[in-house]
Amino acid sequence: MKTIVTALFVFSSVVANAQVLSNEELRKLVRADRLDREAESMDWPATDFNDKARASRVIEILKDGKIETAEDFYNAGVIFQHGSSPDDIKLAFSFATISARLAPEHPAPKWLAAAAWDRYMMWKKLPQWYGTQSQYIKETGKTVLYPILPDAVSDTERSEAKIPPLSKIILEFEAKNKEDRHH
Which of 76, 93, 123 is the last residue of a domain? Predict the structure, then answer.
């Protein structure tokens, strides 16, 4: 894991000023990832299998030095955001952070970094910071906002990542839960 993170930073510094095209295979992997999640009824075992295969391929692409642009790092982050371990989520955060540094004008990598951080905190059974993660409660049949550490980040920091203010996030979940109770 340490070697992969070190490689990420070396690659990102080498390509920071290069004019290269984004990796088409990474784009295809992200499209496949989305298609798995857009299915009307998700086949979780198949999706998990596909997620692992996509993550393995991203590592091969990284080792081949073919993750070069902000878009490439972002796409790699998307794949690892759907990973099955805390290490996968740390890689998603690392890829997204590099993408955000290479393309500071684009909000998507900042959002992905925030979402990966929140997801990592969930893995560690700690409160999330930004408010991007929810969880399904089997007993109630409801999806609730995963606990948040309210002062970990400011609403200004949320805004930079295109995340609504915390008060709005909470109100939206409360409204949704009220709506669910009336149906």
Answer: 123
The dihedrals phi and psi of 142, each to the nearest 5 degrees, come to -110, 155
The angle formed by the CA atoms of residues 105, 158 and 62, to the nearest 5 degrees, is: 55
What is the rounded CA–CA span in Å between residue 131 and residue 96? 17
**The residue to which tokens 């894991």 are assigned:** 1
Query: Do 143 and 85 sit in the same domain of this protein?
Result: no
Q: How far apart are the first and last CA of the chain?
A: 47
Helix or strand run (H / E) with residue 135: strand 134-137
- Rounded to whole angstroms, how far apart are CA atoms 129 and 119? 10
- 103 φ/ψ sector (left φ>0, alpha ψ -120 to 50, else beta): beta
Residues 110 and 141 in one domain: no
Measure CA 56 to chain center: 17
Instruction: Choose among 62, 89, 78, 92: nearest CA to 28.
Output: 78
**How confident is the model over 66-85, as pLDDT tens digits?**
999 999 999 999 999 999 99
Q: Which two tokens stand for residue 36?
A: 């798995």
Total domains in the chain come to 2
Domain hosting 173: range is: 134-181
Question: DSSP class of residue 117?
Answer: H
Model pTM?
A: 0.84
Nearest residue to 79 (alpha-carbon basis) of 35, 20, 26 = 26
